[in-house]
Amino acid sequence: VQLQAFGGGLVQAGxxxxxxxxxxxxxxxxxxxxxxxxxxGKQRELVAVITSSYSTNYADSVRGRFTVSRDNAKNTVxxxxxxxKPEDTGDYYCNAGxxxxxxWGQGTLVIVFS
Length: 114
Known about the structure:
Strand content: over 45%
Distance between the termini: 38 Å
Low-confidence stretches: none
């Protein structure tokens, strides 16, 4: 399976973006899917995850502002990002826990300016 993330862009602080992560195959059996981000000069960090049973978890820095969701029919996971802050800037990656191991998609760049 391959993952493709898109939806990044340039947005003013306080604005919003919705990222999408589309899988080339069914995500129904995936253990979970997650969004990570990597800011310039920093390590990649977990942003949000959603399990196959739709349980979710968020980094403290985004809880209450970001919402992760999944649409199994469209084989897509979303990350709705509201009230964006400059510190949300980075490359956002999605991944999936599959029977064959963890699969990563390419990043989509989010830049938040004040």
